[in-house]
Request: fold
Amino acid sequence: MLINVATAKRISHNAACACAAFLLLGAPAVRAQHTAVTAQVEFAGESARTSPKAKLTRIPQEVVIWLKPLEHPATQDASVRAPARRPVLVQKDKHFEPHLLVVEVGTSVDFPNRDPFFHNVFSLFDGKRFDLGLYEAGATNTVRFDRLGVSFLFCNIHPQMSAVVVAVDTPYFGKSDRTGHVTITDVPEGRYELHVWYERSLPEGLKKLTRTVDISGTAFSLGAVSLAENPNFSPAHKNKYGQDYAPPPGNDYDRP
Reply:
């Protein structure tokens, strides 16, 4: 069977198009290199010679570090970015669990009451301001943290209850564990602005830790992050009306 020149050219052109389509649509996408960024939190004045007993009294836990992109939008692959479930701040045994929650701006957080009595969660200071009012055992309220910053949360009934929600404008964040170690995964290579927050440090001291970093490679260490604690820090606070909490009643009955 003979094929003329025009037919041969047409077959060749169609084959080239099919090949190109396969390369564009059928080939797996190449993912940009992402980096695991680590840091080690320590307190100012500590060294290798600091006694283990002294270090136990100053645990560098719940220190927040985040990286704000300076060269590209703060986005991640959908599979990496989407949380497995909505973050939760549980009210149980007259405490919030966890005490510290870090979320990306726009994230909704559930507040379930798992105590057998009423709670009244509120935040009327920096960050997101809200007042959930009284709600009973077994109920759950939800708050969307759509404002950048640090929200200090309390209960208007139980003065010992406090929590913090830090809302950041980047998906690249982490908080330290009990050893002071921080890991931020899946960070694309590039230039970032490093930020640090710790509840027991003064704002001006934390601001000095802000700096620019260039992330590259499969693993990148930010090195040691040295914090100074505020010697005057106190967890004491007022109720939502700006007044002192009422003292607990006498021993004739238990306060809920």
